[in-house]
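Q: Give me the 3D complex with magnesium ion.
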Amino acid sequence: MDDVLQNIMDHAVAVAREAGQVVREALCDEKQRDVMTKSSTVDLVTQTDQRVEHLIIQSVKKKFPTHRFIGEESVAAGEACVLTDDPTWIIDPIDGTTNFVHSFPFVAVSIGFSVDKKIQFGVVYSCLEDKMFTARRGKGAFCNGEPLQVSDQEDVRRSIIATEFGSNRETETVEKIFSSLRNILNIPVHGVRGAGTAAVNMCLVASGCVEAYYEVGVHVWDVAAGSVIVEEAGGVLMDVEGGPVDLMSRRIVAANNGTVAHRIVKEIDAFSPTRDDGRDQ
Ligand SMILES: O=P(O)(O)O[C@H]1[C@H](O)[C@@H](O)[C@H](O)[C@@H](O)[C@@H]1O
Ligand SMILES: [Mg+2]
Ligand SMILES: [Mg+2]
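A: Here is the predicted complex, encoded as structure tokens.
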């Protein structure tokens, strides 16, 4: 299985690089950044998101015809979001579509691979920075081949925390997002940041530049690849109320260690969006 998995991961890296090239080229062509919307007027998608997802899935199907897929744009088009024990590719073709539309320079192709409902490897290609983040379970995390290690900071007051505002603008949700943000700023922490992509935020945790990232409202395709990258860099994952993380729950804390994660959890005004798999929370 070892060599088989490596072969699959090598393909994921190759296709992520190919996809990243398509994204870079599309940035120079306004038509390919024409905006359509999904769940709300600020939940953006472009033909490039759809084209890149199609490219990845077709490429994988040719080599691994029995594998299954959960892709952001396929789910948006009506496919089920179900994780089984079968080998499954979890794909976000462009993580940071809003950034892409505005040429804000953090845009990633994110690919996680799951077997037995456990993420086996993750590939995040931050394509405008040309940074290829990779991690395979039990084998460490890397950026462009260099090993990654989370920050050793234990004191949240000396930390940078990353988060995002998401695309839900219902008053109650926005209130909760700001309540968490206010609580965390008031700890006080050194700073709060957000790259505009969950996958890149998680890679920043893995790289040791930010101590923790949290968000409520993300989807499994935003965080599948990043989850194994964070863990393999020595970090921890948690639910926003402190329990074990569930990648379908749309709630995540990814941190350099348990001390920082638990401290952040205390300040999060948690809520429960509809799960990706449609199950009850
Ligand atoms: O750009 P996306 O693939 O749609 O992912 C975004 C998501 O839309 C946004 O709501 C989150 O706040 C970001 O963290 C995701 O990366
Ligand atoms: Mg995304
Ligand atoms: Mg996306």
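A quick observation: The chain has two domains: 2-147, 156-267.
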